Amino acid sequence: MDLSRRELLTRTGQAAALATAASTLTIGTARAEPGVKLTQGTNISVSRSADGKWLAFDLVTAIWVLPSAGGTARKLTDELQDATLPSFGPGGQIAFQSYRDGNYHLYVIGRDGSGLKQLTHGKYDHREPAFSPDGTKIAFVSDRAGSYGVHVLDVASGAITQLTGVPDEAAAPQWSRDGKRIIFVTGNATVDTVTLDGKRERLVTAPAGYQLFGAAFGPGDQPSYTQMRPGQADLMLGTTAVVTGQDVFGFAPVWDGDRVLYTADGHIRWHANGSSRDVPFEASVPVKTVKPHRGKNLVAGPVKGIAGPVVSRDGSKIAFRALNSLYLLSNGKTTKLTDGEYFDSDPDFSPDGTRLIYASDRTGVAQLWVRDLATGSEQLYAPAPGAQTTPRFSPDGTKVAYVDQDGQVWIVDATGRRQITPTLFQPGRPTWSADGSVVALAAVKPFSRRFREGTSQILSVDLAGGELKYTEPMPFRSIATRGDDGPVWSPDGKHIAFVVESVAWAVPVDAKGNFTGEPRQVTREVTDSLAWHGDDALVYLNNGRLKKSTLDGRTTTIRVHLNWAKPKAPERQVVHVGACWDGEARNLRRNVDIVVENGKVKEIRPHQGPATSTLTAIPGLIDAHNHWHLRGRQWGARQGNLWLSYGITTVRSPGDPVYQMVETREALAAGTLTGPRFYATGEAIDGSRVYYNFMRPTLSRAQLDLELRRAHELAYDMIKTYVRLPVELQRAAVQRSKVPLSSHYLYPAANLGMDGMEHVGATNRLGYSHTVTRQGKAYQDVVELFVRSGMSMTPTLFQSRALFAEDKSLVTDERTRVLFPPWEYDRYVTDANNAGTPASTWSPDILRGWVTFALAVHRKGGLVICGTDAPLDTPATATHMNLRAMVKYGFTPREALITATRNPARWLGLPIGTIRPGAPADISFVEGDPLQDIKAAANVKQVMVGGRLHQIADLLKPYRQAHALSTTDALEPLPSAENKHWWHEPEWAEHVCCAH
C-alpha cells in the first residue's frame, strides 16, 4: 500500500499523540523508594508572582512553586512534560516551555497544578515564554520563520505576531513594565529591544571575549543582563556590575525596585544594598538505582558486518567490505579481493562491471584505487593531497565523485579534479543522475543558527549550471543517516531511493532529480545501506542480512556465506617487569613475573633474581567514549594502532554508523584488524531533528521497535538515546532494551532506569545544561543524583587542551606525529600552540570546574568513567590529557587511573581493567611510576591485548614512511562550490561537541 506524504504525516502524528496520551505519568506516583532531597539547582531559572507571594522555578526539567520566603517546593509538571523556564502571569497562571511531543511548545498551568493547556503546536519550536504585565500576551521565540525571532501570542485568540526574523537568532524575551517593549538577546552578542509595531533598538553590545545572556528591564528601564567569559559571570545593570564573584546562571533577573531576584551558585537569591541572601528550598525527586549488566564478548559467528554493499549494473555481482577486506559475491560464491593491514572501503562498480573503484589508505591516507576484476591488477586513480572517500563512478565510467576529509565533494577524471560543493558537515555518499549531469547526496539543513539540528535532505548539484538545491525527502522528515541510506539514483534515472523512518522509499524523479510524484514505501522491515539492483529492485541490509526487494515489496535473502572466529590466543608467555599495579592496590608491587596463558593472566609471582626490567605493568586503559567511525574513513587502519600505542586496550563507542561499527568490531575480534577491544552501539536514537550523520531520527513507538530490533539482532553492547528524543520514547527504550543505555541527560534519566550520562554537560536541546553551568560548575542536585542513582558520568574533558600551555609532549611524541593523518596533526599542532593565548578556545577555569564536579561525584561513591569523544577530541592522546587534567585539579593519580580501568570495566560488565589471575591479559607496559606521576601512563613501550604483545615500533611501521604521490591537478571549482550557507562547514570547524 502506498501512502502519500500527507497520509504518512497524519498517521504518524496520530500514533504519536495516542502513545503520548496513553503513557502519561501521574504526579506523585513514582516508586515507593525514598527520593533524593535537592537543596540546590544547577542552571535553574526563577519567576515571581505579581503579588510577590510565590516563586516558580525549574529544577530537573519540571516546574515547581515555592513560597517567596522559601521552604518546601511543590512540583507542578510530570517527567514526560520536560518543562522549563516558567513565567508568572495573572491569576497564578504560569507559562513554560515543554518538549513533551518532540518539539518545544508553550503551555500554561495554574499555580495549584490545575488547568494545564498547550498554546502552540506544529513542527517548529516555540521557546522561552514571558507573560506581558497585563497577562494578555506572551512573548516567545520561534524558528518558524527560518531563524529564531521574537513573536507575541495573544492569549485569548491564539493569534501569533512575528516582531523580528531572519537573520536574527533571538533568545529569552522579557517585557517592559508598561508592556510596550520587549528586550531580548541576539546571538549572545547584543541586547536589543523591539516595540509591538516592530521598531528595533540596540542597547548593549558585548565587549570582546564576552557573551550576553538573560536580558530584562531593570530600574529606570535600564538593560539588565548577565555578561560572561570563562571564569567570570557578572549580573549587569547598564554598564555596572551589580553581582560579581558568583556563578550567575544567565537567566532573566526579576527586579523589584533596587533589589533583584536571580539564580547563582545553585541557589535562588535576592541581591540588595551590596549583599546577597538565599531563598532556601527543598525538593524531593524519585530515582531508580542502576542495575549492573553483564557484558559479553563475541567469539564466532556468521558475518553481520557487511559494510557499503553495491551491485553491478547487470545485477550479477555484489561488492562490500567485511572483516577488514573487500569481497565480491557472484554466482553464489564470495571471494576476498583485498587482504592487508590497511583500510580498504566503499567499493563501486564501473558501469560495465569489469572494474572496482574503492578507497584505501595503503599510501598513508585514503586514496582511490581501481581493480581489474579479471586480472586482479590495481592502480591508483587520480590521487589528491587529502583523503578521497566514498567514490562513485559516473554512468559513462569516465568520472568519479568522491568526498574529501573536509566534507567537500569533488569530481575527478582524466583532465583533473574539480570541487563541486563547499565544505559540508558530514555529507553522505554521492550518487549520479542517469545522464551524468547531476550529483546528489545527503546533507544536513539546520532550522537555525542558534540550535544546530535540522533534517538530512537531498542536496543536488547541477554540474552544468553549478547550482545547489536542497529537497526534503518528505515534509519535516530526514533521510535516516547520511551514510549509505540514500539518496541513490536508479540506473535508468527514473527513481531516487532513500531510507526514512527505518524503511526504504522510492520516489519518481525527472532527469534533474526533481520529484514528479509521491514517495512510495518499498520495505516494511529495518532497512539500511541501499543499492539498486537493476531499475526495479533494491538490495539492502536488514539486521546483518543482505536482502533484495522489488519495488512492489517482494523480498528475498541473498546468502553471503561468510563466517568469522576469534583466533587462538598464545598458549603461554612470561613477562618480567620491574613493577606492577594491578588496578586495585595503592602501591606498586616490585620485581614480578606476569604469567599469561591462553590470553589470560595465570599468575603474578615474584621474579627469581634481580630486577632486569625498567617497565611497569598497568591494566590496559579503557576509553569509554569515542566514535571510531565519525571520521573512520579518514583515519583508516592507523586508528587502531594509535589507540594501542598509547596503552589503550579497550574502547567504547556510544554511537557509530551501525554497519561500519559491526564490521570493525568483527574484524578486531577476528584479528584481521589491529586494535583494541571494541564495544559499541550503532546510530544513536534521536528525535525529529538531527545533526550528526549517524543519528537515527525516531518519531514513533512503532519506529522505536524497529530500531531496538536492529540493536538486538546486531548485538549492540549499549544503546544511546540522543538530544531530541522525547522523554516518553526514552522511557520506552529503557523498558524494552536488554543492554545498558546512556544519553546526554541526568534527569529524568535517573528515574527512568538509564545507566549513564555522557559528557559533563554537552549538547542539550535546551541550548544549555541542567548538569553543568556555563562556568563549568555543578551543584548538590547533580552530584546527589549521580551518586544515588549509580548512573555513570563520562566527563569528556575537552577543555583539557588548555594544559598544552604547560606541556606539549603528547603533540610532539613520535606516535602522534606518525599515526595522526597529516591534516589532523596540523590542526592538533595549531590547537596546542594556541593554548594559553587569546586565540585558544580552551579555558583552564572551565576545566577546573569540570574536574571539581567529577571529583565530587567520585569521592561520594559515584561512577566516573574516562572518555574523550574522540575524534572530536583526539584519539588516544586525549585519554591521557583527561587523566592529566584530573590529577592537576584534585584527583590522585590512582583515582584518575581507576576512572580509565576498573570503573569503565564495571560499566561494561567485563572482567577487564585489572591484572589478576583469570582476567584477560590486557596490559600496558610503561616506563616510570604512574601512581606518582600520571604522565608515566603515556610512556608506553609495549602493549598486550588478550595475551598478544605489540611493540610500539611495529605499530608505527606501516605509517612511518609517507608515500610521495604525484597528485592530479585541481581545476577551477564549479560555482556550486562557493560557500553561500552558514551551515556549510566541516565538523571540526567549531567545537559543537561541547558548546551547548
Query: What percent of the residues sit in helical stretches (DSSP H or I)?
Result: 10-25%
Structural class: alpha+beta
> What would you report as the Rg, rounded to the nearest angstrom?
29 Å
What's the β-strand tally? 70
Blueprint of the fold:
Layout: H1 5-22, E1 36-38, E2 46-48, E3 54-59, E4 62-67, E5 71-72, E6 74-75, E7 83-88, E8 93-98, E9 105-110, E10 117-118, E11 126-131, E12 137-142, E13 149-154, E14 160-162, E15 170-175, E16 181-186, E17 190-195, E18 200-205, E19 211-217, E20 223-229, E21 232-237, E22 240-243, E23 254-256, E24 259-264, E25 267-272, E26 275-279, E27 281-285, E28 300-302, E29 307-311, E30 317-322, E31 325-330, E32 333-336, E33 344-349, E34 355-360, E35 367-372, E36 378-380, E37 389-393, E38 400-403, E39 409-413, E40 416-419, E41 431-432, E42 438-446, E43 454-462, E44 467-471, E45 488-489, E46 495-500, E47 503-508, E48 520-521, E49 528-532, E50 537-542, E51 545-550, E52 555-558, E53 563-565, E54 572-580, E55 589-597, E56 600-606, E57 615-619, E58 621-623, H2 632-635, H3 638-645, E59 648-653, H4 658-670, E60 677-680, E61 684-686, E62 695-697, H5 701-713, E63 719-720, H6 727-736, E64 741-743, H7 749-752, E65 756-758, H8 780-789, E66 792-794, H9 809-812, H10 814-819, H11 822-834, H12 844-859, E67 863-864, H13 877-888, ...
Parallel strand pairs: 5-27, 54-57, 58-59, 59-60, 61-62, 63-64, 64-65, 65-66, 66-67
Antiparallel strand pairs: 1-27, 2-3, 3-4, 4-6, 7-8, 8-9, 9-10, 11-12, 12-13, 13-14, 15-16, 16-17, 17-18, 19-20, 20-21, 21-22, 23-24, 24-25, 25-26, 28-53, 29-30, 30-31, 31-32, 33-34, 34-35, 35-36, 37-38, 38-39, 39-40, 41-42, 42-43, 43-44, 45-46, 46-47, 47-48, 49-50, 50-51, 51-52, 54-55, 55-56, ...
Helix pairs in contact: 3-16, 5-6, 8-12, 13-14
InterPro entries: 6-blade_b-propeller_TolB-like (IPR011042), Amidohydro-rel (IPR006680), Metal-dep_hydrolase_composite (IPR011059), Metal_Hydrolase (IPR032466), TAT_signal (IPR006311), WD40 (IPR011659)
GO molecular function, one term: hydrolase activity, acting on carbon-nitrogen (but not peptide) bonds
Domain Amidohydrolase-related: 617-949
